[in-house]
Automatic annotation (TrEMBL):
GST N-terminal domain location: 1-80
Keywords, comma-separated and alphabetical: Transferase
EC number: 2.5.1.18
InterPro entries, alphabetized: Glutathione-S-Trfase_C-like (IPR010987), Glutathione-S-Trfase_C_sf (IPR036282), Glutathione_S-Trfase (IPR040079), Glutathione_S-Trfase_N (IPR004045), Thioredoxin-like_sf (IPR036249)
Protein name, as recorded: Glutathione S-transferase
Record-linked Pfam families: GST_C_2, GST_N
Source organism of this protein record: Pelomonas aquatica
Family annotation (PANTHER family): DISULFIDE-BOND OXIDOREDUCTASE YFCG (PTHR44051:SF19), GLUTATHIONE S-TRANSFERASE-RELATED (PTHR44051)
Keyword flag Lipid biosynthesis: no
Molecular function terms from GO: glutathione transferase activity
Coiled-coil zones: none
Source organism phylogeny: Bacteria, Pseudomonadati, Pseudomonadota, Betaproteobacteria, Burkholderiales
Domain GST C-terminal: 85-204
């Protein structure tokens, strides 16, 4: 299997970290800013959105990073990361979908302005920072309730995707609220194989 996308992308890194944790040697090819453009016809034939990453498994191409993580776990039979029991699996996928939708949308303006240098008004940035902190507080409350990982006592795909998001929040040049459960959880995650390479590597 091959993953198309540059390693500086948080979405590429979540797939690479998943692969490392399930013991999969996933080849990676650089696409995106600074490399080959995902707007090239060859790439658009795989992903019409023109976004990274794309996973290629034989003649099968899959886009959307959280779907790629699910696919890798399911193909490897990694039920510890993606449970087979319907309610447990739905809870993991619920938090993954929340990460991709609600949480990502909250930080987009602030991150793109403060880190990527895209234009935005101070008011828009301030509103985005407030929303980002509010959503991270929701994550903190969940972790405080479980006392361990996002979905309970077991480390799952939800911890992988949200771990990368939480690390981005922690490194962002913003005023952050104090979230003790998130800090303790990130410390736990840092002991996992691949964390230093794909999460705690200083990349935004």
């Amino acid at each position: 299997m091959k993953l198309l996308g540059r390693l500086t992308s948080i979405n590429v890194r979540k797939a690479m970290w998943t692969a490392r944790l399930i013991g999969l040697d996933l080849d990676r090819e650089d696409w995106g800013a600074g490399f080959r453009s995902p707007q090239e016809p060859e790439y658009l034939a795989l992903n019409p959105n023109g976004l990274i990453p794309v996973l290629i498994d034989g003649d099968f191409a899959l886009w959307e990073s959280n779907s790629i993580c699910r696919y890798l776990a399911a193909k490897a039979g990694a039920t510890a990361l993606l449970p087979a029991e319907p309610q447990a699996r739905a809870t993991v996928e619920q938090w993954m979908d929340w990460q991709a939708g609600e949480l990502n949308n909250s930080w987009r303006v602030a991150f793109m302005a403060l880190v990527r240098g895209q234009p935005a008004t101070p008011e828009a940035v301030a509103a985005s920072v407030a929303g980002w902190n509010r959503h991270m507080r929701m994550l903190d409350q969940q972790l405080d309730k479980t006392g361990a990982y996002v979905c309970g006592e077991r480390f799952t795909l939800a911890d992988i995707v949200l771990g990368l998001s939480a690390q981005r929040w922690k490194n962002a040049p913003i005023e952050r609220v104090e979230l003790l459960a998130v800090e303790a959880w990130l410390l736990q995650l840092s002991e996992r194989p691949g964390f230093a390479e794909f999460v705690g590597n200083g990349m935004p």
